[in-house]
Specification:
The protein has 97 residues and is mostly beta strands. The longest helix is centred in the middle third of the chain and has 7 residues.
């Protein structure tokens, strides 16, 4: 996969400091670009290019503890947005039911 400007798509991974088996996946939103001019403009920003992404991304664990508080440690993956589409995928044939 590639970003709007052709730069490579990437992901961030932060491993648990305590070897937790819990995971949080953060999928960044960005909204579709519908027209060529809009997509070309977005390609010049962080929502269309990975060229200026930081070396690390923040990710807060979203796993609830028994007392209702959020767990402070988990494995975490961040999927930044940069392609002008949505994270919906494509399957040419329906799944058999």
């Amino acid at each position: 996969p590639a970003c709007l400007d052709g730069s490579p798509f990437g992901a961030y991974l932060r491993k648990s400091a305590t070897n937790s088996t819990k995971w949080t996946a953060y999928i960044q939103g960005g909204g579709w670009c519908y027209h060529e001019a809009e997509c070309a403009q977005r390609a010049l920003t962080g929502l269309g290019s990975s060229k200026n992404w930081p070396g690390q991304a923040e990710c807060r664990c979203m796993n609830a503890m028994e007392d209702g508080s959020l767990d402070g440690d988990c494995n975490c993956v961040v999927l930044p947005y940069c392609d002008g589409a949505s994270f919906t995928g494509f399957r040419p044939k329906p799944w058999p039911a």
